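Deadline looming. Please check this record:
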Amino acid sequence: MGAVRPVVRAGFVMFVFGAVLALPGSAEAGGSPFGPGRDHYAVGDRVSIEGGICETGQLNGTLKDGPYFLSLVPGASERSGMPSPSAIQVAEIQIAGTGGCDLRAHAEFVVPDVPPGYWSLAYCNDPCTVNGLGDVVTWGFWIGSTRLESALLSRVDRLERTVGTLSERARDLRESKRALEVTTARLADARTELVAVQERADLVSTQLADARRRTVDMRNRLDGAVFAPSRFALATALAVVALLVVILVTLLRRRQEPADPQAESANSGMA
């Protein structure tokens, strides 16, 4: 478990660092962005917005449906067009160009005296008959009575989002830690089992070596027992052969000796 803590601490540092780098800025989405360059303004500040836009896109409005007007809507809004009844119209969007994606949009206004908080930018024609122009996407910003208040509102929002992100990542980190602990425990069990298997393998190797040694000894004893009677039998056979040779030679010699003359005379008188 000692090796788990450094990994967990390193992961936590990486999560914190990533969350700080990922502090939210503008709510820009896909399409032609059309929004302020800052995320907070004070009442009375002048806001200037400019950007290239396309007339063609997912929204059903065209230049012919204009003019289009920019409004402030309290709270976060997920839609660029169709301002709510509580919207405060602040400027007309000036659009120049020949059409298609060769368009430049510009709007400028002074932040009105509204309650502090987050305000979204929305736009539509008047009366509002379309859901937006081409692919234009807007977002909002924080408004305060003073620049300090608006900056603090923005900072608090960033910190709250950071806390939320860190909470989610801390939860993920805890789950990863638990998974790592389970994996570490399984690894320890596997190592213990491996040691036991190795010990059994060593025991089997020792037993096998002893069996081989006993087999060699038994084979040597069997070879000696077979060879000794064979050598004795050979010696016995040689002795018998030698005795037979002696007897044969003796018989042959007796046959070749001359007969006794006295015995022959006696034999003749008797006849």
User: Anything to note?
Assistant: Residues 1-29 have pLDDT under 50 and may be disordered. The radius of gyration is 57 Å. DSSP finds three helices and nine strands in the chain. Residues 82 and 267 are 171 Å apart (CA to CA).
